[in-house]
Design brief:
Blueprint: E1 6-11, H1 17-24, E2 30-36, H2 39-46, E3 52-56, H3 62-69, E4 74-77, H4 84-94, E5 97-100, H5 106-109, H6 112-118, E6 121-123, H7 132-146, E7 150-161, H8 180-186, E8 191-195, E9 198-202, E10 212-213, E11 222-226, E12 228-229, H9 233-236, E13 244-252, H10 255-264, H11 282-292, H12 297-300, H13 309-324, H14 329-342, H15 357-369, E14 378-388, E15 394-404, H16 412-429, E16 439-441, H17 446-458, E17 464-469
Parallel strand pairs: 1-2, 1-4, 2-3, 4-5, 5-6, 6-16, 7-13, 8-12
Antiparallel strand pairs: 7-14, 8-9, 10-11, 11-13, 14-15, 15-17
Helix pairs in contact: 1-16, 3-4, 7-17, 11-13, 16-17
Amino acid sequence: MSRPSKKVLILGSGMVAPPCVEYLTRNPNNQITIACRTLATAEKLASGFPRTKAISLDVSSADHLDKHVSTHDVVISLVPYIYHEGVIKSAVKSKTQVVTTSYVSEAIRALDHAAKNAGITVLNEVGVDPGVDHLYAIKKIDEIHAKGGKIREFYSYCGGLMPPSDCADNPLGFKFSWSPRGALLSQRNSAKFLQDGKTVEISSAELMTKAIPYYVMDGYDFVAYPNRDSVPFREFYNIPEAHTVIRGSLRYSGNPAFVQALANLGWLEQDKKDWLKDGMTWAEIQQQALQASATDEKYASHSYAENNELTSYISLISRIKEVAKFGGEAESERIISGMKWMGILSSEKATIAGENLLDTLCARLEKLMSFKPGEKDLVMLQHKFVVEWPNGQKETMTSTLELLGDPKRYSGMALSVGVTCGIATQLMMDGHPALSKPGVLAPYKKEMCDPIRALVEKEGVKMVEATAKS
């Protein structure tokens, strides 16, 4: 007896959508609708898959969501997290199941009661980080506990990066496998974690200054910094015995200092700038941004047009050094050289985006520093468990994902996020008991993680486990 068809609405057609769509279309009972504000973008993606159509949809419109969510069995929200609340509220009305790859925010958690009353599952955190990280953390923790061990320290760091061999001419040591805006803002989060039994908090302004060298494996020069709130994961992962719990991000050495400099110089500001006008050069924008925050009248009254180009440039560089607070002359030279490479100190006219500095910078970086066809990205994810056994012996165990993208198929980031989401969605639609309970869910339990992990591994996404005596 054939199963009834399932109608799946996918919101968003970005880089993680194709592997998700491809996985779901393997099941001949699935009918896929790809929704995007720009119909042509959705049509381009839909044309490559069977039983898949495209529609135009504005996710910021409750009426648009209600109209289309109500005609589907499942909605997968691959749009920015700020829209998930509206998607879930719409799904509650029509009793449509929901899947996201994002963390369970307070706004999502607040809808748990409504989801339960509607009898729908709202499944979250089924990407790579969060997602694949949970699948292997829970596996290892359960195995250690079953043998009588205690997790005293837990560290988990992930990065969507480029191979180190490609970093030589890239001042950030980074290319964007997803939104430059999202990537840069992720480095401006605050952080909260447990260390030696104490809760430590780091402000968003200080986060990049706290990056420290972190060894994952030979051949990589990483630094790591905490990200978001790690404290609840002692409970989520059932490791009450742990005195240190830190989850965070990986970047190549030098990247955090560069991002911190961009922030100090105003480039990551999101507020509207009335003075930011078409026709301005990049150097004029930088100068104006520095004047706007200057307290010294000699800078506030300085006009780029009042001096010759060389004098103005020297003055600008001097002001940059004063405001950026570089950690030494070598760092100053490296970062200013990088800014020149980006063109943001040049006399070239800038293309203004979003009426603010962040979006204007991101539009520039998207052209300069996105992955090109044929280039590989890298997803690096590592868990580190410091374990104490009943006899007092201590061991350090690791679970590591080193995933390179396939230029002929999918990037590592697209595959690890998209296929994980597709697998979790299919399991939910198939009625897997752990993945189809009403309410807001995230994969923090063995019964949820095991079936997803088994299928993810078949798609080439697998963390490798190792042990070293400590």
